[in-house]
Every structure is written in C-alpha cells, then in structure tokens.
Q: What sequence folds into this?
C-alpha cells in the first residue's frame, strides 16, 4: 500500500497525455483474456475489480451482498457498452475510461489530497508519476 498526493489538475493532465491512451490500450489488451478484441461482461468485471474504480470513484464503501455487487457491475458494464452490443470494444473502453478519470478529476478539485493506493500500476499512480516526471524535467 502506497500513498500518493494528487489533485484534479494532475489527473486532467494525465488524461490529455498520450501516456494515458497507451496505458488504457495496454490495459484493454491485458483484460481481453480470450483475445477476441472486445471485453465481455466477465472480462470487464475483472477489470473493475483490478482498477478499484468502485472505491475510487463510485464512492461505495459498503457493498454487502454478491447480488448487490453483481447489480453494480452490471450497471457499470452498461455504461461502458454504449451501443448495447453486449461487449465493450476499444473505442468504448477508451472513452469511458476518460470519462471516469475526468469525473475523478472533478471530484478531486484543485486541492491536493492524499490517496492510498494499494496497487502499483493504478492509473492514478501513473498520473502522479507523470506529473512528478514533468516537474523533475523543468
Ligand atoms: Ca474478450
């Protein structure tokens, strides 16, 4: 478990950077377990569990039953699956990840806050790393 200091500005910067697109594309590829080029419901569920988006963005910290969790993941899947094809393609994944990150940025606002990160490669961690690199490069 690490702790990063991050604000909305840092997250927005990251979303506009090509590094973000690269990260999202890599993530998509690693989540597409059967390699068919789209994410199924179960593949995307694994993604949510890994990204910890529930905790980070949706603000739900008390999820008690498996049924509630499934309902939650289903509603998230429907958000990603814009054209209701039953799968999430790369374009849908990219645009929704961007929306989610921007929503996080809005939530963070201008005041830097500390966030506990317990996965080394989370997107917020990458955002903080990128900002640190930029500061170091000046
Ligand atoms: Ca797939």
A:
């Amino acid at each position: 478990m690490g702790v990063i200091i991050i604000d909305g500005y840092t997250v927005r910067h990251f979303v506009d950077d090509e590094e973000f697109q690269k990260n999202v594309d890599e993530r998509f590829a690693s989540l597409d377990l059967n390699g068919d080029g789209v994410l199924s419901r179960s593949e995307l569920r694994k993604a949510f569990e890994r990204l910890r988006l529930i905790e980070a963005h949706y603000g739900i910290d008390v999820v008690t039953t498996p049924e509630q969790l499934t309902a939650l993941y289903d509603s998230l899947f429907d958000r990603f699956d814009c054209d209701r094809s039953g799968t999430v393609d790369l374009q849908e994944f990219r645009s929704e990840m961007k929306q989610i990150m921007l929503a996080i940025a809005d939530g963070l606002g201008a005041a830097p806050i500390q966030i506990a990160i317990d996965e080394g490669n989370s997107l917020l961690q990458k955002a903080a790393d990128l900002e640190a690199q930029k500061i170091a490069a000046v």
Summary: The helical segments are 8-16, 18-31, 41-51, 53-58, 66-80, 90-108, 123-137.
